[in-house]
Design goal:
single chain, 170 residues, alpha/beta, Rossmann fold, 6 helices, 35% helix, binds magnesium ion, hydrolase, cytoplasm
Length: 170
């Protein structure tokens, strides 16, 4: 028994992409994201973040700092009745200065590794799943994984989802 998921890119979809955001005080929600997450929580679709975090390989911040940011995010979402069911991240980047993370990874979008792993670990139906991302590589990762990708280029992601995504689910 598998179920569909909502995959979300992080930077540019959940938070405004100020560039390598890694501190809660710099974390600014994309308008409408809490409503979007809450909606899919209510549908019992797992909401799964899939995020390239090459800032770790570039030495801008540590995995621990990223996890602390995500813990603060989850706590804040909980206060608003919303929940992320899982966060998959890729800290690797070939040629980056932090040796431990200097490698090609099948997880780095546009490669689909994070989606495939989430499907395996969470029992997801990729063909019924959707991804919302703000970059071409997000959409490619979704397509290679067999899911449907939606490129968000607007301002309010809940307005976008209601206009473009939800009608596709019926
Ligand atoms: Mg993005």
């Amino acid at each position: 028994m598998t179920r569909p998921a909502l995959f979300l890119d992080r930077d540019g979809v959940i938070n405004v992409d100020h560039g390598y955001v890694h501190r809660w005080e710099d974390f600014e929600y994309v308008p409408g994201i809490v409503e979007l997450i809450r909606h899919f929580n209510g549908l019992d679709w797992p909401v799964v973040v899939v995020t390239n975090q090459s800032g770790i390989a570039r030495g801008y911040y540590s995995e621990e700092q990223m996890h602390a940011l995500h813990a603060a995010l989850q706590a804040d979402l909980a206060q608003q009745g919303a929940r992320l069911d899982a966060v998959y991240f890729c800290p690797y980047l070939k040629g980056a200065p932090v040796a431990a993370y200097d490698r090609n990874s099948p997880d780095r979008k546009p490669k689909p590794g994070m989606l495939l792993r989430a499907a395996r670990e969470m029992g997801l139906d990729l063909a019924a799943s959707i991804l919302i991302g703000d970059g071409e590589r997000d959409i490619i990762a979704a397509q290679v994984a067999g899911a449907r990708g939606f490129l968000f280029k607007g301002v309010n992601v809940w307005d976008f989802a209601r206009a473009r995504v939800l009608p596709e689910l019926t």
